[in-house]
Amino acid sequence: MNVKQTAATAPRRLKMGLVGGGRGSLIGATHYRAATLDGGVALVAGALSSTPERARLSAADFNIARDRTYDSWQEMLEREKALPADERLDLVAVVTPNHLHFPVAMGFVGAGFHVLVDKPMVHTSEQASRLASAVEDAGTILAVSYNYTGYPMVKQARHMVREGLLGEIRKVVVQYHQGWLGTRLEETGHKQAAWRTDPALAGPGGAIGDIGSHAENLLSTITGLELSELCADVTNLVPGRRLDDDANVLLRFSNGARGVLVASQIATGSQNDLSIRVWGTRAGLIWHQERPNQLEYIPAEGSAQVLDRGSDHLCPAAKRASRLPAGHPEGFLEAFANVYRNVSDAIRARLEGRTPTELELDFPTVHDGARGVYLIEKAVESSQATQKWLPLHPLR
After folding, report:
1. How far apart are CA 299 and CA 284, in angstroms?
2. Stretch 29-56: mean pLDDT, rounded?
């Protein structure tokens, strides 16, 4: 926001509601901080837990008024849609365990609310197709919190691919390694481990859904390649676990390029080791999430270059995603906030009666979410099949 704007001319803050994310949830506080970082969004309502008492206590933690603290998402939906247009919520963030994403998102989209939903978007491709149709019918915005694509240097990498600086893309390797599920943590009362390893709550994919979806979105965002086939080995390496904790997927793309996607939550000692390597006919790129402010560019001829977030030569999307001067690190929370800022700016543009700009529309959409769900589904199917190469026909 321009510091010269007065209170009279500054755009009003959007009103956000949160479904899920109460006490004991790391992701609820993360969404709250990301949404409000730039001052354009206020959290004013919430159905923060499936337990009414916990929902009320959690709402107090976020300073949500009692009259907009709801015991269930259904109550929140009914009461909020009954409010006058200038009082009701502008945006609803869905940060529940995965099994609730579909009914909650469908309910609010159907009532005309804009929605941001955590990944993976829903459990099945059939649900994804229905949700995409509902969004189209309602004319609302639905975004998916693939927050790693909010990093400035990811946007710069995408720009360089689009501009042809890598030539034709021939090979992509994307890897996401974590080690936190290397033991049966779900049996110790650990809430996050418990629902992420329960197929009824998490869906058909464990690691492939929880972090493999991030890897797929990073790959697709940067390269723009269209997946055509895959061959997957998706398994649980911790004995007795009900969902996969390790996934290795071979990828084929419609332009003939090849790829590898690895998602593991039993990589001992790893924290959030997400990285991508892209090779084209002219150059290659390397980006690491744990060192997000640098992007390596390796041309076929000439010296390798390390681009940093403070460079004057970054593309407009990367510059828009940067807040601090060169030499001041930006990280996870700022990247997450970039998703919220673009979503909220796109909503605000509609409220102002104008078409959002390309930069304001730079966030993962319902179609990105549907593509990720389809990959999870097909990876699990491929791993269980004797025929290992299965065709992909992503939702368009």
Report:
1. 6
2. 93
Give the whole-angstrom CA distance, residue 392 versus residue 256: 14
pLDDT at 38 over 80: yes
**CA–CA gap between residue 346 and residue 111 (Å, rounded):** 19
Q: Output the CA–CA distances (angstroms, integers) from residue 2 to 8, 40, 205, 222, 326, in the order listed.
A: 13, 12, 44, 30, 20
Distance CA 205, CA 227 (A): 19
| Residue 251 β-bridge partners | 230, 259
Residue pair 142/130 in contact (Cβ under 8 Å)? The answer is no
- For residues 89, 95, 98 and 99, what is the CA-based torsion angle, rounded to 10 degrees? -50
Place of tokens 């259904």: 74
Q: What is the C-alpha to C-alpha distance for residues 101 and 110, in angstroms, rounded to an integer? A: 14
Interval 283-314: pLDDT, tens: 999 999 999 999 999 999 989 999 999 888 89
Q: Provide the mean pLDDT of the chain.
A: 94
- The per-residue pLDDT for range 228-267, each reduced to its tens digit, is 999 999 999 999 999 999 999 999 999 999 999 999 999 9
Tokens of 59: 């709402």
Buried-state track 134-172, b at ≥16 Cβ within 10 A, e below 16: bbeebebbbbbbbbbbbbbbbbbbbbbbeeeebeebbeb
Contact 155, 358 (CB under 8 A): no
User: What is the rounded CA–CA span in Å between residue 374 and residue 377?
Assistant: 5
pLDDT in tens, 180-212: 999 999 999 999 999 999 999 999 999 999 999
The structure's pTM equals: 0.93
Q: Show the tokens assigned to 255.
A: 């332009």
User: Cα separation of 209 and 97, whole Å?
Assistant: 12
DSSP letter at 353 equals T
Token pair for 32? 């709250």
Closest CA to 92 of 148, 48, 60, 62: 48
